[in-house]
Design brief:
Radius of gyration: 24 Å
Strand order of the largest sheet: 1-2-4-3
Largest sheet: 4 strands, mixed
Order of helices and strands: HHEHEHEEEEHHEEEHEEEEHHHHEHH
Number of domains: 3
Structural class: alpha+beta
Oligomer: single chain
Number of strands: 14
Length: 427
């Protein structure tokens, strides 16, 4: 280790010890500090804590792509002006400065005469947005940010709200560059005044149904509504929920691929058959791995089992379009036409609001969990392993059963039993 590296490591240790006097930082670092690295460049996967000293890489956008959502950067320098300027840059790029620029004094000549030591300037920034400002992603459409505690000791929460018309317009212009501005503005009004409010209002309602019917052993694996704001028409414009933070389970290390598949399938079975809700957008982006295990988020396009959408012309129109154009429906159509999917269970659910939509996509996604970059380090996945091969075989049997008249796997509960058999075989 070079002298500079030793010095940086000492400064990090010194500052970390000082920050531990903050009970909130202490608790969080104790829980998630295993992901911290001595410098941003050393982090191999998404981290919950990163430390940068002086000239270590510390550009906001670079750090953004290395941190998990909610992760924190601690920047340290002898240069007060550099710390202040860097904090300003971070505040403009999707972070909240949770500790404004401050300083502590280093020891003097190795002695405990801290009042004579040189100042160590630092700040702490938390990543609170899902995408960088002024950037767009097909993964996320609403404005979603982490919301700081409203009272000391309270946890962080998730604030989801209708995006500003300007942001929706910018997104549409990027996706449809040949469309006229008149059409763009018409679509903006449709999204911000009708579609987004309807979905956000439904999400709040679905989460309350989940909370009411959720078995106690699955607590903490679905978001819970904390509060909301409605407009004059009664539509929800802002929704604040509990934060289901991606993290290692409290009782151990990363989930095995088989554990991930079983927990996800069990949760889907509970959602469908106990709670009575169909998710309809169960992409890996809407699955999280929490302290309590696999969880599901983003219930905006969910429906109640047996719900008659024809009672509302608006809902009927929106969901008819969703069932024709969603990523999941496009995949089901493609695989059906290619002969990869032959099960009459999924053919019967094609372009319909049905439990099989969730079941189909879950059966596919357990075969490549790390296609969600947030799961790096949280799920152990080796595509050449016996476990991966067994799960692929289970998926193949689900999508293309040997007996078309009596498929073995018809529901999430059936799939759970299939995964359990893999576990019992010791794969």
């Amino acid at each position: 280790m070079t002298a500079l590296c030793k010095e940086n490591s000492r400064l990090i240790d010194r500052l970390t010890a000082a920050l531990m006097s903050d009970s909130g930082f202490l608790a969080e670092f104790g829980r998630f500090g295993h992901a911290a690295a001595s410098s941003p460049a050393a982090a191999a996967a998404l981290a919950d804590f990163l430390f940068a000293v002086d000239k270590d890489p510390h550009e906001p956008d670079e750090i953004f792509r290395k941190l998990r959502w909610g992760g924190q950067l601690v920047y340290i320098s002898r240069d007060a002006a550099e710390v202040a300027a860097t904090a300003t840059r971070f505040a403009d790029r999707g972070y909240l400065i949770v500790q404004p620029p401050a300083f502590l004094r280093d020891s003097f000549l190795g002695l405990r005469l801290s009042f004579l030591g040189r100042k160590l300037h630092y700040f702490v920034a938390r990543k609170v947005t899902l995408v960088l400002p002024r950037e767009f992603s097909d993964r996320f459409t609403y404005q979603v940010e982490l919301h700081p505690p409203q009272k000391p000791g309270e946890p962080w929460s998730v604030l989801k709200q209708i995006p500003a018309p300007e942001r929706v317009a910018a997104r549409l212009r990027k996706r449809f560059p040949d469309v006229t501005e008149e059409i763009i503005q018409k679509r903006v009004r449709k999204f911000t005044e009708k579609i987004f409010p309807v979905f956000l209002t439904r999400e709040a309602a679905m989460l309350k149904i989940v909370e009411k019917n959720l078995p106690a052993e699955y607590a903490g694996r679905f978001p819970k509504v904390l509060d909301l704001e409605k407009d004059d028409a009664g539509f929800v414009r802002k929704l604040r929920m509990t934060w289901l933070r991606n993290s290692l389970p409290r009782d151990g290390g990363p989930l095995s691929q088989v554990e991930f598949a079983r927990q996800a399938a069990e949760l889907l079975h509970v959602l469908h058959d106990v709670i009575g809700v169909i998710h309809l957008d169960l992409r890996l982006d809407n699955i999280v791995i929490t302290e309590r295990g696999v969880g599901f988020v983003d219930f905006g396009s969910s429906v109640r089992v047996g719900e008659d959408l024809s009672d509302s012309p608006l809902l009927s129109t929106i969901f008819d379009e969703l069932m024709r154009t969603s990523e999941i429906q496009r995949m089901l159509e493609k695989m059906t036409l290619s002969g990869t999917v032959t099960s009459p269970i999924f053919e019967a659910g094609y372009q319909k609001v049905d439990k099989t939509v969730d079941f189909f996509y879950l059966a596919l996604q357990v075969n490549n969990p790390l296609s969600n970059p947030d799961f790096q380090g949280l799920v152990v996945y080796d595509p050449s392993s016996d476990a991966a091969k067994a799960l692929r075989k289970l998926t193949d049997e689900t999508l293309k059963p040997g007996n078309l008249n009596n498929p073995r796997y018809r529901t999430a509960a059936d799939f759970v039993r299939g995964v359990q058999r893999i576990e019992q075989a010791g794969v």
